[in-house]
Amino acid sequence: MTLATHWSFAPSRFNFHIARPPIPFSPSVAHLPLDRRRHISAYGYTQAKALVYPKHGSPAEVLTLHTHSISPPHSRLLTLRTLAAPLNPADINQIQGTYPTAPPFAQELGTPQPSAVPGNEACFEVLSAGSGCKDVSRGDWVIPRHTGLGTWRTHLQVEEDKVMKVDKDGLTAEQVATVSVNPVTAYRMLKDFMPLKEGDWFIQNGANSGVGRAAVQLGKMWGLKSICVVRKREGEEGQALSKQIQELGATVVVNDEEIMEMDFGEKVKQWTNGGREPLKLALNCVGGDAGMALAKTLGAGGTMVTYGAMSKSPLRVGAGMLIFKDLRFVGFWVSKWGDRLPEEKKRTIDEVLDVIRDGKFKNVPMVEVPWSYETKKEELLEAVQGTLEGFRKGKGIFKFGDT
């Protein structure tokens, strides 16, 4: 091989250089400003952006959009591209510092000060895998194995055991991204706390939530009857919501004011064959007086499972409920359950995805928030802030485009 050489003169010595071939001109990229040349990745580095926060507080005050580079994966590392990531209330609580667990503050992304990335659910595509990866390869879809991974970002790099592979055939990224919290919570609450057989009744509040809609549909699949409580909406909007929940499989739909009325117990008797088909299970995400109104409808020996506290008010359990009705009051936190039983979590997720794939399960309504390389921080923060508002058209979800 012949090397082209040239000599350059310096006052004290001659320097020998190997002439490098000219870099080809790419008109599709070269005209772009440097901060937009995201497709050029020197030495295989991936350009990424992430929402980060250096301290707990209001999302609007503490979140910033940080740009960084990810090196090529080695060993058992994976480089992932985010396809979709939902905005859950728990994500907001973690930013605020009011949730029991939170992602760690660190500087591995090169932030000016130790920061955390919010978000617990997502669907990722594997861009590249280290030579030591055994179960996952390029093009596969994966989801977080545990909460706290930090999903509100365009790309990330993690060890293979931090994610679990899913069969993407027949599924959308949005369906996969939202499977591990709401549907799994509903599934386990209906299965794990009270033996229910076909024809049995359960009651739930928050029926329009992601968990509530999942419980309605799973209950119908398993032959269960349900009384579903939703927040009151006036006029046609309220009627449309009730119809929507009934079409998902609810036996009876009422609003949160009706359940507080004195004669509600009598209505329950009418619906349940004169009380001969007692309510065995209650699913509570509201708490306070609304939660106790739910408990009062339970038959003797019934169980109320609390998985949320939207009212931020405590449950005041009367002694009579414990002594004379022998009711059980328990809590359920899907994150803790999944950490304790990872294989059961994987089996539950796969079963739910099979049902979705077969067209037997409808996703909660979603409001897509586009996130591309050019998306501004203000657009993302507006969507995050919307998660804190009362009545929404659907669950917010980041949908990643050209990143």
Describe the model.
- With 403 residues, this protein is an alpha/beta fold.
- It has helices at 27-30, 59-62, 89-96, 173-177, 182-192, 210-221, 235-248, 264-271, 288-295, 319-323, 334-340, 342-357, 377-386, and strands at residues 5-9, 14-18, 46-52, 64-70, 77-86, 123-129, 141-144, 155-159, 163-166, 201-204, 225-230, 252-255, 279-284, 298-306, 328-331, 366-371, 395-400.
- The strands form four sheets. Strands 5, 6, 7, 8, 9, 16 and 17 form a seven-stranded mixed beta sheet that branches.
- Helix 5 (182-192) crosses helix 6 (210-221), helix 5 packs across helix 12 (342-357) and helix 11 packs across helix 12 (342-357).
- The chain starts with a strand and ends with a strand.
- 38% of the residues are buried.
**Helix content estimate:** 25-40%
Query: Distance between the terminal alpha carbons, to the nearest Å?
Result: 41 Å
Over all CA atoms, what is the radius of gyration? 26 Å
Query: Biggest sheet: strands, sense, closure?
Result: 7 strands, mixed
Can I get a quick summary?
The protein is an alpha/beta fold and 403 residues long. 28% of the residues lie in helices and 25% in strands.
Question: What descriptive keywords fit this protein?
Answer:
alpha/beta; 13 helices; 17 strands; 403 residues
Write the layout of secondary structure elements.
Elements: E1 5-9, E2 14-18, H1 27-30, E3 46-52, H2 59-62, E4 64-70, E5 77-86, H3 89-96, E6 123-129, E7 141-144, E8 155-159, E9 163-166, H4 173-177, H5 182-192, E10 201-204, H6 210-221, E11 225-230, H7 235-248, E12 252-255, H8 264-271, E13 279-284, H9 288-295, E14 298-306, H10 319-323, E15 328-331, H11 334-340, H12 342-357, E16 366-371, H13 377-386, E17 395-400
